């Protein structure tokens, strides 16, 4: 495209743009789990980057002719790290990329449910962003956004400094509502949602370990969309398995779901709840009116039949409603007019480039969990969205137009016990009829006999899947920021 020359080795530095487009399109025909072909490929991991011999940044990057252009990326999670890396990798040394992120370490929410049963320590999910700077030349700025001026194309940070941009990529993730009678202080100290991995994950682990015979663990699930659709059901399985293997007699895991049914991997989790963890997990869909007393751990709700119910819990894990960070009334995203999605909670985007569809938001892109694009809110998807966005920005900066038919893969694994797991995968392609990404079956069909295509889930839960889950996670993290 436009005379761009790719210098990089795809195994050592990440995918070239041509390989990215080719592999994504190939997924339409194969339906293969993303990254499977790269397992154990020798790509440098995040944790080893710090100690490796420095590479010459220029040798890693494409030659594009871009010069003097500035992209500011806000948020250093899965989407933000990926887009910063690939903007430099595909855009070349003349494209200045600045990543704004307040935290020194990234803690992955992917795999964090395994902290609850002791399979993983939280430290194994923590990564530096050093390679973005040392390997790709991304400028890193510690801080948070407090304001965006669309007229002057500037971003004001928490230290009152400003950054100028030609294009702005927002990947702020999500924030969590005060809900069910709970506050942010309750989440931190008494009733952790642990839906952003970190201190709350450790607290929830401590609470689960402290459970005794006949204790009750109550989890709530908000109405979709929420981050990681299979995650709550996976967590219920992990906690139930821990209670069984540690011989906590008579314990229950009660799942109060505000949705009418299981939102992902339905066959897998119906089997897990009804067979694998029968007698331990009680799944209650279609609930409303949830209230939680953070001190007494009494949970009240109205069931699907309209009957009021009360549970005395030992541990309460409220996965509360969430929204794009900054989208609340008075928040920086809202003040910039970018929270134009449902109920002002999300950012609507043009999925060809992830540019905001808000009026006057030229040059502002929103990716990851904060955006509304037709794909689920998940780490693997955020990585894919970031690549589509990076590719589109490079095309635009070199006089072209975004790919008119983007394709992306979604994949996740779900542990069912301490040794077994399931998986879910889907290929998404652009549907010009409504401007959204939709699931495509083999051959790229959006409809099968008039019915929308659906994700593919594992036929069985197995130890092999559990092993593959570790490889998938390691490879995904390498691709994101190493």
UniProtKB/TrEMBL annotation:
Every Sulfide dehydrogenase [flavocytochrome c] flavoprotein chain central domain range: 201-317
Molecular-function GO term, any one: oxidoreductase activity
All residue ranges annotated as the FAD/NAD(P)-binding domain in the record: 70-175
Transmembrane segments: 20-39
Record keywords, A-Z: Membrane, Transmembrane, Transmembrane helix
The organism's place on the tree of life at top rank: Bacteria
Protein's name in the database: FAD-dependent pyridine nucleotide-disulfide oxidoreductase
Organism, scientific name: Hydrogenophaga taeniospiralis CCUG 15921
């Amino acid at each position: 495209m436009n005379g761009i020359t790719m210098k990089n080795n795809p195994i050592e530095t990440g995918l070239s743009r041509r390989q990215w487009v080719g592999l994504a399109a190939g997924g339409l025909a194969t339906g293969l789990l993303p990254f499977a072909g790269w397992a154990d490929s020798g790509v440098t991991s995040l944790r080893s980057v710090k100690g490796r011999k420095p590479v010459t940044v220029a040798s890693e990057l494409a030659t594009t002719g871009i010069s003097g252009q500035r992209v500011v990326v806000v948020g250093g999670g899965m989407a933000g790290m990926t887009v910063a890396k690939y903007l430099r990798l595909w855009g070349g040394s003349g494209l200045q990329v600045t990543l704004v992120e307040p935290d020194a370490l990234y803690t992955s929410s992917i795999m964090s449910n395994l902290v609850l049963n002791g399979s993983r320590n939280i430290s194994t999910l923590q990564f530096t962003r050093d390679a973005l700077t040392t390997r790709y030349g991304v400028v890193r700025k510690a801080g948070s956004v407090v304001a965006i001026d669309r007229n002057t194309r500037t971003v004001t940070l928490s230290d009152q400094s400003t950054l100028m941009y030609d294009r702005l990529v927002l990947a702020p993730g999500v924030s969590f509502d005060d809900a069910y009678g709970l506050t942010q202080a309750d989440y931190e100290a008494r009733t952790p949602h642990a839906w952003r991995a970190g201190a709350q994950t450790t607290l929830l682990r401590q609470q689960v370990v402290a459970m005794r015979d006949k204790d009750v663990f109550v989890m709530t699930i908000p109405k979709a969309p929420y981050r990681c659709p299979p995650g709550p059901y996976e967590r219920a399985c992990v906690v139930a398995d821990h209670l069984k293997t540690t011989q906590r007699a008579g314990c229950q895991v009660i799942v109060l779901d505000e949705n009418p049914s299981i939102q992902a991997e339905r066959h897998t989790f119906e089997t897990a709840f009804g067979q694998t963890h029968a007698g331990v997990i009680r799944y209650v869909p279609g609930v409303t009116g949830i209230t939680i007393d953070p001190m007494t751990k009494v949970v009240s709700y109205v069931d699907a039949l309209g009957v009021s119910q009360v549970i005395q819990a030992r541990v309460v894990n409220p996965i509360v409603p969430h929204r794009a960070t900054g989208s609340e009334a008075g928040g920086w995203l809202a003040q910039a007019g970018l929270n134009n999605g449902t109920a002002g909670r999300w950012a609507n985007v043009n999925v060809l480039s992830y540019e905001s569809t808000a009026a006057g938001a030229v040059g502002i892109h929103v990716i990851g969990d904060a955006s509304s694009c037709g794909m689920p809110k998940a780490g693997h998807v955020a990585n894919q969205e970031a690549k589509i966005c990076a590719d589109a920005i490079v095309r635009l900066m070199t006089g072209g137009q975004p790919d008119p038919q983007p394709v992306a893969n979604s994949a996740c694994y779900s542990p069912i016990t301490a040794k077994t797991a399931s998986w879910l995968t889907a290929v998404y392609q652009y549907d010009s009829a409504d401007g959204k990404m939709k699931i495509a079956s083999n051959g790229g069909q959006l409809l099968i006999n008039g019915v929308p295509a659906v994700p593919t889930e594992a036929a069985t839960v197995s130890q092999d899947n559990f092993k593959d889950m570790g490889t998938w996670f390691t490879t995904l993290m390498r691709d994101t920021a190493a």
